[in-house]
Amino acid sequence: MGLNTIYESNQKQVLLILSAVLSIQSCVFAFEFPEPITRCHFADEKCMIEQAHKLFEKAATGVPERDIPALEPMKLDKIEMLGDKNSALKIDLIMNDVEIHNYTKARVISIKGFSKNLSKPMKLVSQNINPRITIKSKYKINGNILVLPIRGEGELTMVLDNVKTRFSTTLKVEKRDGKHFLSGDTIKLETQMDNVHIDMTNLFNGDKTLSESMLQVMNENWRLLSDDLTPIINKALGNKVKELLQKFFKDIPYEDYFLTD
Ligand SMILES: *[C@@H]1O[C@H](CO)[C@@H](O)[C@H](O)[C@H]1NC(C)=O
Ligand SMILES: *[C@@H]1O[C@H](CO)[C@@H](O)[C@H](O)[C@H]1NC(C)=O
């Protein structure tokens, strides 16, 4: 063995060691979704829907490694609907300590819009169905519904059946260290539901006759309240969901979202 060959084989070893070190490093630094969520092939919608269900299930009890609290129930601070909406609905409704139950039980129907073109914003659209969502809060109400005066302060429960949600978001693409990162820009939630049942404790200072007849009127005309209230709730929910998605995806380069083979 000549000196040159020894030198060459040493060089080869150094290269091998170097590339082993590098590949270990890239294993450490390559982004992984929190377990049990896995990557999908690009445009494999069925796989993405499965991951969304796993994410919902995981988020129900929280994702501490991503600083996401338990979302069952999901908590919102305050929802306010103030002023006259139309001739039939003139109320101020303030909801505090809002809890949304079953939000993570949604069945995702579609997820569309992931793109390979990173030179423009991405628009994602997802649709889901939730058999039953319950909203609970403290409430204060004052005003008129169908010219009937309403006032009270107590606990509110709204049960929403068969809630269909269309969720659309525009994501900005930012480049850092040669990689692309998505961040939520706008988010919009639109919902339709089959029925809403409303219950409020302590209407009219607990007057049983007055509150029972008012609740009956409200439930027979549930769309009256929900048509104006759901967009406000959806806006608060949208902001919350945007914040949660930001936390979940913030350090993940888009290059690492999908399987490459
Ligand atoms: C990507 O989007 C930009 C901006 O809309 C467009 O000009 C370009 O042609 C697109 N590239 C591809 C490969 O589609
Ligand atoms: C949650 O969803 C399940 C299944 O649809 C339903 O049986 C249950 O009543 C819901 N719970 C609440 C608090 O809405």
How many individual helices? 4
Instruction: Using the coordinates shown, work out and report the CATH topology of the largest domain.
Output: Bactericidal permeability-increasing protein, domain 1
- Uncertain segments: 24-28
Order of helices and strands: HEHEEEEEEEEHHE
Report the average pLDDT across residues.
Answer: 90
Global Rg: 26 Å
Strand runs, count: 10
CATH C-level name of the largest domain? Alpha Beta
Range of strand content: 35-45%
Brief write-up:
With 261 residues, the chain is of the alpha+beta class. Helix content is 33%, strand content 41%. The protein has 2 domains: 1-30; 73-259, Super Roll (Bactericidal permeability-increasing protein, domain 1).
Describe the structure.
The chain has 261 residues and is α+β, with helices and mostly antiparallel strands. The protein folds into 2 domains: 30 residues; 187 residues, Super Roll (Bactericidal permeability-increasing protein, domain 1). 33% of the residues lie in helices and 41% in strands. It has 4 helices and 10 strands, in the order H-E-H-E-E-E-E-E-E-E-E-H-H-E. The strands form 2 sheets. Strands 2, 3, 4, 5, 6, 7, 8 and 9 form an 8-stranded antiparallel beta sheet that branches. It is elongated. The protein starts with a helix and ends with a strand. About 2% of the residues have low confidence. Bound molecules: 2-acetamido-2-deoxy-beta-D-glucopyranose (NAG) (2 copies). The site of one 2-acetamido-2-deoxy-beta-D-glucopyranose has 6 residues, from strand 6. One 2-acetamido-2-deoxy-beta-D-glucopyranose (NAG) binds next to strand 6.
